[in-house]
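Sample pair:
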Amino acid sequence: MPEVVRRFWGWYEKNYVLNAGVALVLFTWQLVHLYWLGAHVIAMRLTGISYFPISNFWQTLLILVAYMEVPAIISTTLLYFFELQKHFRWRIVGLLILLNSQWLHLFWITDEFVVGTFLGAEEAVLLPVWLAWVAILIDYVEIPVIIDVFWRFVKSLRQGQGLRFIREELH
């Protein structure tokens, strides 16, 4: 393993609680998006009623949350790569697959949104409804990853890594 990679993983391990915390905070923001998706998009499709009225504030927040997904995916992927380089586990590989399926969703939906916004909904290429449901399902597979990152962060705090990080930063 090259020295720079070894030093990076050494730094990563030393600051594990910070790295896990950053990944957790970034991914926890996605819960706002998932709530909106369920309470607005899915509810409108199934019942014709939105349980998440979109105001300018919420629209701005949802746009910010959407942009936070990229660093959330990157930071959490690094977290899992760190775990894999220590001990290979198929469970982590599965979580990595779920996590990185978000790239497909992110670019796919973003492209459709951009086309729909710039060309108008009537000129945009409309995908079959079942494909939209697949995109929504892909979005919800973030939940097991968020739960896993939460427990990794809690475990690192319980092992005293958080206190060690704080002590070292204060000195």
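DSSP finds eight helices and no strands in the chain.
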